[in-house]
Amino acid sequence: MDSEVEAAESAQEGAERAPSNGILLAAVGVVWMAAMLWSARATITGRADVEMEVTSTAYALPGAISASLVAGAAVALAVLAFLTRGGRTPGVTVRFIIATGAGLGLGALGALSIITINTEGWLYAVVGGTVAAAATIGGALAGLRYPRVIAAVCWGAVAVFVVGFVLNYLQDPLLSALGSGDTAASQTGAASWFALLQSVLSGVAGAVVAYRVLRRARRRSGSDVRWPFYALAGAGPGLLLIVGEALTRTAGSRVLELAGKVSELELTVQQMLSGSRLNNGLIVLFVGAFTGMIAVGRTMGSPAAAPAPAPAPASPPVDPDAIEQEARADEPSTATRPAP
């Protein structure tokens, strides 16, 4: 019985995602990761002194980690979609191993692009190892039981990146609109409002995109996931941001520590950026989860009302005179009563 259930679940998963969608998501993820790594390499190698190289590496690390998480998951989903074509259904353990291996392979390629900046120092080896770890973790996530939810989270993370890119491009006019002026207090207040606006819009956009991906998968496969998974998909981009920040603070901690030793100002900046990234991830998580619940709640109809019972037929009105006449008719007549 258990084997039949697993086979049905595997067949359902194979019908949930078409290979073309897996390839499109993988292409977007790989392009995003490659762009972040290329930007990091160009920024690092373009610095004239060692101190600027260190600080540039610390600034580029969080973005490269986030992109590697999504790219690792996206590539692993595409590999699994290819392997499950034609009714082939690998087991849970085999699927997890394949997904993790796909993420590790992509992470190794990404790490190579960073390590080759300077193969003699440990700094770039740490960055490359962190990038590889992020892609491997993303691939492992793709090996979980609900691939359509992971795909929705990846698309939501792409939407969060796009919103952040557009808002940063429009940062100057937005800061002016938020009250940034010549004083330091106004600039600080406008920057705080800008960060909050970016986090909220990113959470909403990521959740809406994730919701649309799940609804499209429902139309294609004819089956749907339970409503808590919509909330999980909406919160997924925020979870990825928090995981990326955790990797930055653990696997990449030596890079941040070295950057903090450049100057007291740089140490303060790194601490502020770390706290800002964590706050951003938390806001995106909670706003995304709330938006996902609202989106799926609007499509859940109220239960049908039970039909009202049919009214009982009305009884005819009671006539007291008729009852009395019937009682007299039932009594024996005195004329036919036997004599004593």
How many structural units, i.e. domains?
1
> What is the share of helical residues?
over 70%
* Contiguous runs where pLDDT drops below 50 for at least 5 residues: 1-20, 302-306
Largest sheet: none
Structural class label? mainly alpha
Briefly say what this structure is.
This protein is mainly alpha-helical.
Q: Which key phrases capture this entry?
A:
340 residues; 78% helix; transmembrane helix; transmembrane
What can you see in these coordinates?
With 340 residues, this protein is an all-alpha fold. The chain has one domain (2-297). It is 78% helix and 0% strand. It is built from 12 helices and no strands. It has helices at 2-16, 19-45, 50-83, 92-115, 123-142, 147-169, 171-177, 184-221, 227-250, 253-260, 264-297, 320-330. The longest helix is centred in the middle third of the chain and has 38 residues, at 184-221. The radius of gyration is 33 Å and the shape is flat. The N and C termini lie far apart (89 Å). The model is unreliable at 1-20 and 302-306 (pLDDT under 50). Residues 301-340 are annotated as: Disordered. Keywords: Membrane, Transmembrane, Transmembrane helix. The chain crosses the membrane at residues 22-40, 60-84, 96-115, 121-142, 149-170, 190-213, 278-296. This is Zinc finger and BTB domain-containing protein 17. Residues 306-319 have a biased composition (Pro residues).
